[in-house]
Amino acid sequence: MIKIFEKRKIWYGISLAIMLIGLGFAIAFKGLNFGIDFKGGTILTFNMGEQVNQDKVQEVEKVISDFTKKYSARETNNTEIELIIQTGAIETEQVKELKTKVKEEFNLGDDYLVQEENISGSIGSELTRKAFIASILSCIAIAIYIAVRFEFEFGVAAIVALIHDLLITLSVYAILRIRINSPFIAAVMTILGYSMNDTIVIFDRIRENKKKLGKVETGELINSSISQTMRRSIYTSLSTLLTIMMMVILVPGIRELTVPLIIGIITGTYSSIFIASPIWATLRDKKDKKNPKAQYGKKKKTSEA
């Protein structure tokens, strides 16, 4: 049997270390790497009229660098390159000059401009606010569901695990300086649901084993329940990860959605196994100490007459 509960301080320490490193990177770089969806800016998509590779992207970047340094360029499909320019990095007239120079430099046709979109900073602020509200409401709804289906301590442990998943994901983004755009919000909502599903499976097994095993130590109850469900959790996560990784390799245009999903699924599986249940046990033990008559999962000693 795997000793999950007894080594809980190690699991907590690993998570805390990643969060602190992420915080350090965020402070060093003055915040997370928010993309155009949050900060605002201009998106230009050019049809290059031929197969696009990294060398072609670099050639386009040389042209762009004459106008601004605050940009990003990437290949979106076989023949197109997407350019993202931050708000305030370039004037409107310069955008027109940039488009003209790209067209002339690469001898592009009249249909060279596939997309031109401007996003204001106010829209980005609104998106940030709504994303935060959506995350909070999701956590509250999940806590209520868990508390009703199981008990209050399970609900609190589940919410702590979800906050853990979100903070770890943001920490990885801060460390790797991955850009955060609107697809990240969709990924976060998916991550919360996936992680919660995995956590509920373990919580349900804890409840079942409580009835089967009777009065056992809380640590033994958790270790037994996690050992019985760990293979299922790992296999489910691996099968999902393999599918998403294939999408990352074969469909580069949706990496802003698939990359956070990969990070979140790994984090969610970790928190379901190593974070949620130990936190529930800690909360339950504290409650039992305050109310000894309502022991739950604790072995009682009997005296002989």
From TrEMBL:
The keyword Signal does not apply. GO terms for cellular component: plasma membrane. Keywords: Cell membrane, Membrane, Protein transport, Translocation, Transmembrane, Transmembrane helix, Transport. It is found in: Cell membrane. Residues 111-285 form the Protein export membrane protein SecD/SecF C-terminal domain. One of its GO terms (biological process) is intracellular protein transmembrane transport. GO terms for molecular function: protein-transporting ATPase activity. Its main location: membrane. Residues 286-305 are annotated as: Disordered. It comes from the Bacteria. It is a multi-pass membrane protein. Part of the Sec protein translocase complex. Interacts with the SecYEG preprotein conducting channel. SecDF uses the proton motive force (PMF) to complete protein translocation after the ATP-dependent function of SecA. Forms a complex with SecD. Part of the essential Sec protein translocation apparatus which comprises SecA, SecYEG and auxiliary proteins SecDF. Other proteins may also be involved. This is Protein-export membrane protein SecF. It comes from Clostridium collagenovorans DSM 3089. The gene is secF.
